[in-house]
Amino acid sequence: MIENQFFSSDFKLGILGGGQLGKMLLYDSIRYDIYTKIMDPNKNAPCHKICDEFIVGDLTDYDHVVNFCKDVDVVTVEIENVNTDALEFLEKNGKKVYPSSKTLKTIQNKSKQKDFYIKNNLPTSPYKNYQNKSELISDLNKGYFEFPSVWKSAKFGYDGKGVKIVKTLEDIKNLPDLECLMEQKVKIKKEVSVIVARNPNEDETCFPIVEMEFNDDSNLVEYVICPANISKELEEKAYNIALQTARCFNSIGLLAVELFITENDEILINEVAPRPHNSGHHTIECCFTSQFDQHIRSILNLPLGNTDLKIPGIMLNLVGENKIEGHVKYENIDKILDIPGVSAHFYGKKKSRLNRKMGHITVVNTVIEEALKIGKNIKKIVKVTA
Ligand SMILES: Nc1ncnc2c1ncn2[C@@H]1O[C@H](COP(=O)(O)OP(=O)(O)O)[C@@H](O)[C@H]1O
Ligand SMILES: [Mg+2]
Q1: Which of 42, 156, 248, 264 has the fewest CB atoms within 10 Å of its CB?
Q2: Residue 110 CA, closest ligand 1 atom number
Q3: How confident is residue 1, by pLDDT bands cut at 50, 70 and 90?
C-alpha cells in the first residue's frame, strides 16, 4: 500500500519555484491531500498562499536549495534555473530529485542541450557553439554560416532576449558578447509539442500532440491548439521522437518536447523542458488526466493516468499589454465567462507588465475550428492592463 505514504500523511513534496506552473501543480496536490513546501525568491509568488509551507529564497543559491530540501521527501521543479550542484549533492545523499540534476545541467545550457541530441542520435537542426562573440565573428569571416541564421545565448537570464534571427553583419555586431550558438534557420511549417511523462517504474505516456501559434512581435505562444492539424503519420513520428528523447534523458516526471515540422515534413527537436509546460495547460480541461496531475503521479511512482482527449480545445495566454508596470486589471472577463466551453485561469500576480504571463483561457469545443474562432474573438475582447 505505497499510496498511504503520500496522501494525508507526513510525506512532504518540495517544489523549487512558486510561479503559475507551481500553482497549477497545487490544484492537484490539494486534491490528493499531499503536503507541499515551495521556495521562490518573490514573497508574493502565485503559490505563496496555497501551499502548506512557503519559503522565500534564491533558487540559484547552493545553500538556499540544500537547506530548503533538507526535510522534504521528493524534490521537483517548476522552473529550470535552479542550483544543480545543490541538487547533485542531495541526490548523492539519497534524496529523490526529479528531474535529475544531470538533466537540468544539460538543459540549462542550450549548447550542451544540442550536443546531447547529436550524441544520442536525435534529430535537430545543424548548429555550432561559440565561447564568445569574437569566435563567432571569426567563423563568419571564414564564411561558415549564412544569413539568415538563428543566434541563441547558451545560458538563461539574458533579459528574456536569448534568441535572435540574424540577417546582416550589423545584426551580428549588435549581439551581446556571450557564450552562444548559431543554428541553421529551419524552414518551419508548424511548431508542435509533445509532453511525455515517465515514472521510475518506466511506465510512459504522451499527451496528445499540440500545435503552437506564436505572436510575431513578442515570440510568446499565442495559441495552443489540440489536437494539432497534422497527418497521422507525422503524429506517430513525433510521439516516437519525443519518447526516445525522454528515454535518453532517463526522464522522470514530465518532459515537454518542442518540435519543428519542416517544409519537407522532417521533424526536428527544438528544445525540451523537464517540467509542466505552457503547451499543456489545456490538458486541465481537455484530457482525462492533466499534465500537472501526471507530473505528480510520475515523480511519486504512481500509476500514470489516461492522457486521451475528452474534448478538443485551444489555450490562449493572457499577457500584460501595459508598457509601464502597475496593478493588474483584467478587462471584459464578464463578457466571456458565459461562452460555453470557456475557462479562465488567473495566476495571482499582482503586477502586470508588457508580455508578462498573467493568466490563460482555455476554450473547449467538439469542433476545434470553432474553439479557435471563439479564442481569437476572446483575444480581441479581453485586455490585461494596469
Ligand atoms: N533554428 C531555428 N530556425 C527557425 N526558427 C527558430 C529556430 N530556433 C528557434 N526558432 C524560433 O524561435 C522560438 C524560440 O526559440 P527557443 O529556442 O524555443 O527559445 P526560448 O527559450 O525563447 O523558447 C522558437 O519557438 C521558434 O519559433
Ligand atoms: Mg522554446
Answers
A1: 264
A2: 17
A3: very low
